[in-house]
Amino acid sequence: MTERRSRLTDWLLLAGFCGFLFFFGLAYFGLGGADEPRYAQVAREMLARHDWITPTLGGKPWLEKPALYYWQAMVAYRVFGVSDWAARLPSALDATLMVIAVYLFLPRFRPGFHLDGALMTASAAGIIGFARAASTDMPLAATFTIALLAWYAWYESGSKGYLTWFYVFLGLGMLAKGPVAPALAAVIIVIFAVVKGEHQVIWRTLWIPGILVFCAVGLPWYIAVQMRNPNFFRVFILQHNLARFRTDLYHHSEPFWFYLPVVLLGLVPWTMFVVEALLESIRRWRVEGREMVRSEDGFSAFLVIWLIVPVLFFSVSASKLPGYIVPALPAGTLLLAEYVRRHASDNVRPRILPIVLHSTVASSLVVPALMLQYIVFQHRLPWGRALEISLAFAMLLGAGMVVTLYRRFGLRVVRFVTLVPVVLALSAALRIGAPALDATLSARPLAEELSKMENRTLPLAVLGVSRETQSGLQFYRNQAIARYELGQAPAAEHLVIAPEGSQIRVAKWTVGRRVTYLGSFAPQGLDYYWVEGKKIE
Predict the structure, then answer these.
(1) 3 state SS of 519
(2) Is the CB of residue 21 less than 8 Å from the CB of residue 426?
(3) pLDDT tens digits for the chain (537 residues)?
(4) Positive or negative CA dihedral for 239, 240, 241, 245?
(5) Residue 529: phi, psi to the nearest 5?
(6) SS (H, E, C) 223-248
(7) 90: enclosing H helix or E strand
(8) Rounded distance between C-alpha atoms, residue 145 and residue 166, angstroms
């Protein structure tokens, strides 16, 4: 009875934290960047055409990414209607599924701190951020994480059922973002088998029924889309996978060390303890050698390899984006859960330095969250009473965390002590900072202004604006956006969006046509104009 009640409490806590961290306030600010509105619009067009095979954007095939996210968004649109929060719903659901998988895995293979591992994974900054984004990154991270957990479950138990799930989710990972999922999984498993000194594990993993399951899950869409679009292989495999990896084709060049700070930030607030857990595992590995790997701490070695391989893999890539590294983050939080499991039962008091550093990082989250409006509009922290109060609150919170962890209960309560500043910071960011993010980073308020001004929907063009703004307008107005610089000035009467003070530039592109200034959207420094249609001679 006690165990059942404990399980019920765990599930209620998971539901509450996942509900808040991933779902609450999904519509507080609009889709941002170039990718979020673009992916959301692709799913809308596929739904409108009742086409589950060919992704399109503006009516033309858009073959950059596989279809898993689009399918999920189409279902969300069908159930809840087309909206920005429905576009983000698939990532939130995928993140929740990943956290549940962690919770179900740990009590079977590492009992005692399974709730810790699940909540630590759910509350990492990178997980929260990408769980709230309409993108392919969280679908990949979730399917990849579940696949690797299933593989390790098979490795320890020998149950072919787990190996079957490994291949199922590896196939879904293939549908989420392409061959990167099986490629990374293969490298991690091979390195682990070599370190473990069990080379036969590699051949046992290559289980024919499992490979057939992978092919049945992951390949039918690839075959169907290739048959409908003969250029798919060239565009997706050669251009958006191989060329993107080898060259800076899409201008995402970053230094080799780029992913080191990305991972550290993605693991906030757990960064310091994850680093401590990683260094401890490496130190033990050096002292005890392969004997440590052969013991139950082989799981720690597996997690270390899982954490490091994606970082190194994408560091070599010429094209770098923060979302590429999300599949590595659960390895860090699980490594921390292992660290807590080993040390929480000891009577030795934990070292003070990691606790102080951890408490400082975790409590400091509330400062930028409370100051988010100032940061967005002024690009700095404002000096003044508001900042002083925020810093004082963070210091008190940090001091309370240090006392609780070091003087009172130790690592046993690290998850709940740390979740306090996470919840406070996210609440403040959503309640206080969301309007500023919406006004400056999303095309939603601009599209709403245009809609209020129009008595009928006109064609829309842009001149000199970012592709983020263009993609956002395409989703929120559900229409193709012409770009003057590409010679796409519409012949018909239309609106055009341009940077402030661009009336002369607009007139140069519309010689002989009347141009009227209609207004401006100050938060993004944009003006909008009405342009007369071309006169028919």
Answers:
(1) strand
(2) yes
(3) 566 777 888 899 999 999 999 999 999 999 998 899 999 999 999 999 999 999 999 889 999 899 999 999 999 999 999 999 999 999 999 999 999 999 999 988 887 788 999 999 999 999 999 999 999 999 999 999 999 999 999 999 999 999 999 999 999 999 999 999 999 999 999 999 998 888 999 999 999 999 999 999 999 999 999 999 999 888 887 776 665 656 655 555 677 788 899 999 999 999 999 999 998 888 877 766 555 555 556 898 999 999 999 999 988 877 778 889 999 999 999 999 988 888 776 655 667 888 888 888 988 888 888 777 766 655 566 666 666 677 787 788 878 888 887 766 677 788 888 999 999 999 999 988 888 889 988 999 999 999 988 888 899 999 999 999 999 999 999 999 999 998 888 989 999 999 998 888 998 998 889 999 999 999 999 999 999 888 765
(4) positive
(5) -130, 155
(6) HHHHHHCCCHHHHHHHHHHHHHHHCC
(7) helix 84-109
(8) 10
Residue 401 C-beta-side C-alpha neighbours within 13 Å: 28
Domain boundaries, given as residue ranges, for the chain: 2-345, 348-442, 444-531
Residue 116, C-beta contacts closer than 8 angstroms, at least 6 positions apart = 337, 340, 341, 414, 415
For 341-378, letters b (16+ CB in 10 Å) and e give bbbbeeeeebeeebbbebbbbbbbbbbbbbbbbbbbee
- If you ran DSSP here, which 8-state letter would residue 367 be given? H
Tokens of 170: 């590896």
DSSP, collapsed to helix, strand or coil, labels residue 496 as: strand
pTM of the shown model: 0.93
